[in-house]
Write a structure and sequence with these properties.
- The chain is an all-alpha fold.
- 82% of the residues lie in helices and 0% in strands.
- It is built from four helices and no strands.
- It has helices at 2-27, 42-129, 135-166, 178-189.
- Helix 1 packs parallel to helix 2 (42-129) and helix 2 (42-129) runs antiparallel to helix 3.
- The longest helix is centred in the middle third of the chain and has 88 residues, at 42-129.
- The N and C termini lie far apart (134 Å).
Length: 193
């Protein structure tokens, strides 16, 4: 009788050890581990439960890995898309800067080109003002001179704007005669009014 008992205890101990080892392997992440062999009674139910748990954990792990792989792939795609957008934005920025540079150069060149003939108009107007003129001719020439000076001022402002955009603008402090400026505007606008 004791031999049978000893043999039964030994067999059960081996089966429990096998189940404990299987549980340890499953806990370590080896979810393909299964308890094997034919067991009797509640031990067979325990074996089935351990194997079902290992299968569920394995399925869950595969699903989680699939989700991680999908999220990683999506993230990679998003990063690539952002990189492409950054490159496109950088190229657009460079094109805009180049267009701005060309525009500034054009404005600077045009303002220089316009100043030369305008200075000629102002110079000849001043020369004519030194000649004998009737009152209307004198007023008309002063209007021409004031208009040309205003136009020259606008052209100088365009040139100053170009310098400002290029970062080569030096600020200066000059006196400003407010009444004279208003009188000039009134004189220029009188014929239109």
């Amino acid at each position: 009788f004791s031999f049978v008992t000893f043999s039964l205890i030994r067999k059960m101990t081996c089966q429990f050890t096998s189940m404990v080892n299987a549980i340890d392997h499953i806990r370590e992440g080896k979810t393909d581990t299964r308890v094997t062999g034919h067991l009797i009674g509640e031990l067979e139910l325990l074996k089935s439960g351990i194997n079902a748990m290992a299968k569920s954990l394995g399925d869950y792990r595969e699903e989680m890995q699939s989700n991680v792989d999908k999220a990683t792939s999506d993230l990679r795609e998003t990063l690539e898309h952002i990189e492409i957008q950054n490159v496109e934005l950088d190229m657009a920025k460079r094109r805009a800067q180049e267009a701005n540079r060309v525009k500034s150069e054009f404005l600077a060149n045009m303002s220089h080109e316009l100043r030369t003939p305008l200075n000629g108009v102002i110079g000849f107007t001043r020369q004519l003002l030194k000649t004998p003129l009737n009152m209307n001719q004198h007023d008309d020439l002063e209007t021409i001179e004031n208009s040309a000076n205003s136009l020259l001022s606008i052209i100088n402002d365009i040139l100053a704007f170009s310098k400002l955009e290029a970062g080569r603008m030096a600020l200066e402090k000059i006196p400003f005669a407010f009444r004279d400026a208003i009188n000039e505007v009134m004189t220029l606008m009188t014929p239109s009014a």
